[in-house]
Structures are given as structure tokens and as C-alpha cells.
Design a protein that fits this description.
Two copies of one chain form a homodimer.
Chain A: H1 3-9, H2 16-27, H3 34-42, H4 50-62, E1 67-69, E2 77-79, E3 86-90, E4 96-99, H5 105-113, E5 117-128, H6 130-139
Chain A binds a DNA duplex (30 and 30 nucleotides) through α4.
DNA sequence: TTTAACTTTGTAATTGTTACAATTTTATTT
DNA sequence: AAATAAAATTGTAACAATTACAAAGTTAAA
């Protein structure tokens, strides 16, 4: 399936900019920020506006084609992977890792019994990734 | 234990401002923002500066006496409850509820086996709280 | 009591994000 | 194909949350 068709499957009208941004999201599993996407795509689309990147990602999130991550307190990150999963952010290098989201249904079921309607779940771990953990040990 | 002693137990040197802010956090389990705290305490401490509220909460978080919540994309919220637990934020009224954090150890253990050092865990549910869920149904 | 260290304060700067009007592009109708 | 309408993109300006920083105030130590 092309990115063009992929956008259509989420009821999003494709455009050059939208295709480029979704393509970037699908090919770069780095949970990029607005700036990362903007800087990367400016080379191919020199007229690209940062506002368009903001608008487009908002649109993607509204249509369920991308997920907004609030794991980083300084700026929003985006994930093109829509299947449920969690994240681990290294406090030292900042990298965000995907992790399986395989926790107990018990809690969410209990919430739903009480009348809470869960629309999304975010699981964020923070700490030291293997590389940084090793480096820190060596420094000490 | 007084708030004064409580701060000391976290290696935080007490001051009028720090005591007032921690007292507010401990008495108001509403996961307040900087502004909420600032506005509430200005009545008692008219000279209070918003910068002090920022500095103080940063200090609390560094010392483990408060937890920073990034559940709200527009501004930071703070939680004086340090025991591990998750949160549910209603997308309609904005209220944040505490929920038990009783999910599988399996995932975190697997991460630790791979060399990840987990320092904190954040579980954020979002959706409709019981009240808002009911109101929405009635409107439709 | 003097000095040093730390805390608080207010202002200004910075940064991420949003509002908005003008322009450009795309789709529709004639 | 031309005219019109609708939608998307752009750039600038506004906004809001946060941080930097220097001055003033407070507390602790000598």
C-alpha cells in the first residue's frame, strides 16, 4: 500500500506535504518532534511551513493515523505506529524506545466497570538505556 | 509529622515558601499546575513569585518529594503522592483521577534483563470520566 | 557583627504552539 | 476550458509556559 492509499484509509485527503510527513513518520521510528520532521523535510520541500507540520500532525492524530506522545516535557513527539505499545525514554541520551504494552487488563476493566470510558492508554518508562547505563557505570 | 519534618526527610531545607507549596500539594490531591498553586498561595504569601513556584517544584521533583506529570500536553502538573500509581485524565472536564498501578511485572523485568534501568513509570489513561460519559450520552 | 551562602523575587528572554489572513492549490460547476 | 468555490499551505504575529539571570532579601556561620 502506498502512503497515498494509507492516508486515504484514515479518511485523510492526501497532499504533497501530508504524504511527505506521513512517509517520514512511517520510515523513521524515532518518535520525532515537529522540529525534526520540519528540518528533515525542508530539503525536499523548501517551501514547507512549520505551521503545516503542526496542522498536519494534529490532523493525523485526530484521524488516528498518528499518536501524540507527551513523554517529553519540553515538546510533543509523534509516533506513526498506531498499534498499542508503550515507550521507554532514556533520561541521559533522550532516545525513545518502543516496548510491548502487555499489562494486566484487570485495572482497565475495573475502571470501565466504574463508568470510565478509556479512549487511550499511555505507558511511559523513564531511566537509563543499556548504552547510557553502561557508560555511567564506567564513569563512576 | 509536620510538613517541615517531611521536607527534611527528603533532604530539602524548609522555608516559608517551600512549606506552603508542599502543604498545598499534600492537602490538594488535584494534581495542580504551577498556576493553580501560585494563585492559591498568593493569598497567604502575597510576595510569592511564580518563579519560586517553578524552582520549588523542580527541587521537589529532583529530591523525589513530588512527581511531574506530563499527562497534560499544555502544562505540567504535579503530584505530592510519591507511592507508585497511575492516572486517568478526562478529555472533557480535564480532571485527573488516581488509579492503582497494578500491572504486570513481566514487561519491566524483561526490560531490566535487557539492560534498561527503570527509574520511573508513568501510566496515563485518557477518555471520559463517569460524569462526562453520562452527560455526553444524554446530549446525543 | 560581619561575612558568606542560600533563597526569593521580578523582569526579560526563550521556546513551543496557535491564530489568522493572504496566497496558492485543488476540485467543481458552468 | 474558464470561472467559481472549497480546501490546503504559508508566513507572520500573538500567545502561553518555562527558564535565565541579576538584584534584593533571608538565613546560617564565623
Amino acid at each position: 500500500m502506498t502512503v497515498y492509499e494509507y492516508l486515504l484509509s484514515y479518511q485523510i485527503k492526501p497532499s504533497v506535504q501530508r504524504i511527505a510527513i506521513m512517509d517520514y513518520l512511517l520510515k523513521h521510528k524515532t518518535h520525532p518532534s515537529i522540529d525534526e520532521i520540519y528540518i528533515a523535510l525542508c530539503k525536499d520541500i523548501p517551501t514547507l511551513s512549520k505551521t503545516t507540520v503542526y496542522n498536519t500532525l494534529k490532523l493525523f492524530v485526530e484521524h488516528g493515523a498518528a499518536k501524540l506522545l507527551t513523554i517529553n516535557e519540553h515538546n510533543a513527539c509523534f509516533d506513526g505506529e498506531t498499534a498499542p505499545h508503550g515507550h521507554f525514554q532514556c533520561k541521559y541520551c533522550g532516545k525513545i524506545y518502543d516496548i510491548p504494552l502487555a499489562f494486566d487488563r484487570e485495572v482497565s476493566e475495573k475502571l470501565e466497570t466504574k463508568g470510565f470510558q478509556i479512549e487511550e492508554t499511555n505507558l511511559y518508562y523513564k531511566g537509563a538505556c543499556p548504552q547510557c547505563a553502561e557508560n555511567n557505570v564506567k564513569e563512576q
